[in-house]
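Morning run. Coffee first, then this:
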Amino acid sequence: MTKAELVEEVARAAELTKKDSEVIVDEVFKNIIQALNRGEKIELRGFGSFRVRQRDARRGRNPKTGAPVDIPAKRVPYFKPGKELKELINLKGDGETEAGEDEGLVA
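And here it is:
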């Protein structure tokens, strides 16, 4: 699913215009990014959690030349799915839940 498709789904489900739903989706993403930049953990009960992990500096190699390359330390975003999300995904193998498309985490 692309961001545009997500915006369309939010607009349809909440009976909003696409423009209004795009503002909502953008704000959610912006707030997640800002919280991660501050080093905060974001917990969405039943869905999962976002956090930042630190990757240490390491030595790699250039795949073309084989020459050693120093790779600097960096912070990377990490998502850990929640138990309920894992269960919902595994209800049925074709991507839909047993109860249909509308079953989900949010009432």
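The CA atoms of residues 11 and 47 lie 21 Å apart. Good start to the day.
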